[in-house]
Design brief:
Elements: H1 2-9, E1 12-14, E2 20-21, E3 27-28, H2 31-38, E4 51-55, H3 57-69, H4 89-93, E5 103-106, H5 109-115, H6 121-142, E6 149-154, H7 156-161, H8 195-199, H9 207-216, E7 222-226, H10 227-230, H11 250-264, E8 271-272, E9 279-288, E10 298-305, E11 311-319, E12 322-323, E13 328-329, H12 333-351, E14 357-362, H13 368-377, E15 383-391, E16 409-412, E17 417-420, E18 425-426, E19 431-432, E20 441-447, H14 452-462, H15 478-490, E21 502-503
Parallel strand pairs: 4-5, 4-6, 6-7, 9-14, 14-15
Antiparallel strand pairs: 1-16, 2-3, 2-8, 9-10, 10-11, 11-21, 12-13, 15-20, 16-17, 17-20, 18-19
Length: about 500
């Protein structure tokens, strides 16, 4: 009985919390601690960052007020270690915004109000996004010095009615213009329809994704901000209370948006503290194409992550990759080889040498056909390992304590399979990630061979590389965290718009 109990105990490990590297090569565990104490890893002197703002006159006033406010410390109402105070943008990042040359594009509020009256979701979102897209592209073509990042401030009505399942309230002034579903893909020569109207059905019914997709070709970087997020006190209900009570999140909002703006301006906030040289992580992204009649049609892309956490996105071929019988995605041999070869070619150009190890992360298994394509894309001296990562909502571990299981716990099932808790109690912030009993990730080495503990340690580290926010860690590794986000942007428009190889900052 005692021997059995000891055998079970040896199957449970506590992995070390991955450290991050900041200025002067100093390391710590929480990005906010590291930025406050040591500054960003890149040590770039991004003085006078040129920003652009596009919004209505009132929206521009609100965002400039907020940008000036975060030059000073920002506190939340509660003294919460999980949401520490923000010391100020220049203090944290050693950079400043060039307010004297803040570039602005004003959108007419009346036009926004008019387009919000369209009952057809495709048409409504396309026309709303065109207000911003057309102006941003025009500005880049006509002006000599375009800003590094455009802050796109959207009113709450666009946020609410710019989603796939949104519908506007019934009103006598609504505009009912659209094309019936069976004519969406009809050829213009067969049906006399407005070209702009038909163009709207080529894009996903999602304002955020469509805006990002339509700006990829011109490589315009944006930071989309919901207006009430930075000016929640201005939006009140009938009881004269804020519609969104964000008082306790003010410092968190400052951390997240500031970090994203710094990264998108060319800085690197932090890197992994311990990097295994020559290791490359590739996350596979699959998205079904709702614009296609065949339910098997899907788009695949690869996200290549570098040691800094930054990386590139490579769009693959569109094909019958989805299997409705087992709900899995698999590439053909040719497409798998081409996709990984493109990623490795870019890696070689950056590093002048092929990677020693490649870890491919996906939510589904790899079949023999596509795996052969991946293998043949690699050099002989490059080790290739396929990792299947899934959320598991069945298996749980509990502890006899007020708080749940610690983040970083690993339950080893066998040499190939383990459960990893990327969520859980974190002593540094005196709380847990998430509100419920944390679920683990199921990690399986499905192809190739590697040390399971090393694989799980890497995945735990990759949960700390989301530059779109500034928190202790995510519940998912960045290889999967960005998967849905990037995939949604890739299929949000025609293929010719989203085929370029670009860094992540264009998609998030």
């Amino acid at each position: 009985m005692k021997r059995n109990r000891m055998k079970k105990q040896t199957s449970i490990l506590k992995l070390d919390e991955p450290s991050l590297s900041f200025g002067y090569s100093q390391t710590t565990f929480d990005p906010r601690d590291g930025l406050t104490l040591f500054g960003p890893a890149s040590r770039m002197k991004l003085k006078d960052i040129d920003l652009g703002i596009i919004r209505t006159p009132e929206g521009i006033r609100r965002v400039t007020t907020w940008l000036r406010r975060i030059q000073r410390p920002v506190w939340s109402l509660e003294n919460d270690p999980a949401r520490p105070y923000f010391p100020g943008f220049e203090t944290v990042f050693e950079a400043s915004f060039n307010f004297a040359a803040l570039q602005q594009i004003i959108i007419n509020q009346d036009r926004i109000t008019h387009f919000l009256k369209h009952t057809d979701t495709h048409v409504r979102i396309y026309k709303l996004s065109s207000l911003y897209v057309d102006e941003l592209i025009r500005y880049k073509k006509e002006e000599e010095d375009a800003p590094k990042v455009w802050v796109v401030v959207i009113p709450d009505d666009i946020y609410t009615f710019g989603r796939p399942k949104s519908s506007i309230p019934s009103d006598a002034g609504n505009i009912e213009i659209g094309i019936k579903g069976r004519y969406h893909r009809s050829q213009p020569q067969l049906f006399t329809v407005d070209q702009e109207l038909q163009e709207s059905y080529k894009f996903e019914k999602h304002f955020h994704n469509q805006l990002k997709a339509r700006l990829l070709k011109d490589q315009i970087v944006t930071q989309i901000i919901r207006e009430s997020t930075i000016a929640y006190r201005d939006f009140r209900n009938k009881a004269n209370k804020p519609k969104r009570d964000l008082a306790k999140f003010e410092s968190a909002i400052a951390w997240n948006i500031s970090n994203a703006l710094y990264y998108k301006s060319g800085g690197v906030p932090w890197k992994l503290g311990a990097v295994r040289e020559g290791v490359c992580y590739v996350g596979l992204v699959y998205k079904r194409m709702d614009t296609e009649r065949d339910e098997k049609t899907a788009c695949c892309a690869a996200q290549m992550f570098l040691d800094s956490g930054d990386g590139l996105v490579f769009r693959g071929n569109i094909g019958p990759w989805y299997n409705p019988d087992n709900y899995e995605y698999h590439l053909s041999y040719e497409s798998a080889k081409e996709l990984l070869a493109n990623a490795l070619s870019s890696f070689n150009r950056r590093n002048q040498t092929p990677p020693k190890e490649i870890f491919i992360h996906a939510k589904t298994y790899f079949d023999d056909n596509e795996w052969s394509g991946f293998v043949d894309a690699c050099k002989k001296d490059t080790k290739l390992v396929g990792i299947r990562i899934r959320d598991d909502r069945v298996f749980k571990l509990y502890r006899d304590h007020s708080y749940p299981i610690l983040r970083g716990m690993m339950f080893k099932v066998d040499k190939k399979t383990a459960f990893l808790w990327t969520r859980g109690f974190i002593p540094r912030i005196k709380t847990q990630l998430g509100l419920e009993t944390p679920n683990p990730l199921e990690i399986e080495i499905s192809k190739g061979d590697s040390d399971l503990k090393t694989v799980c340690q890497d995945i735990l580290a990759l949960t700390k590389l989301n530059y779109n926010s500034c928190i202790f860690a995510d519940g998912k590794p960045v290889t999967l965290r960005f998967a849905d986000m990037i995939g949604s942007v890739l299929i949000a428009g025609p293929k010719e718009l989203t085929q370029q190889v670009l860094p992540f900052k264009h998609y998030i």
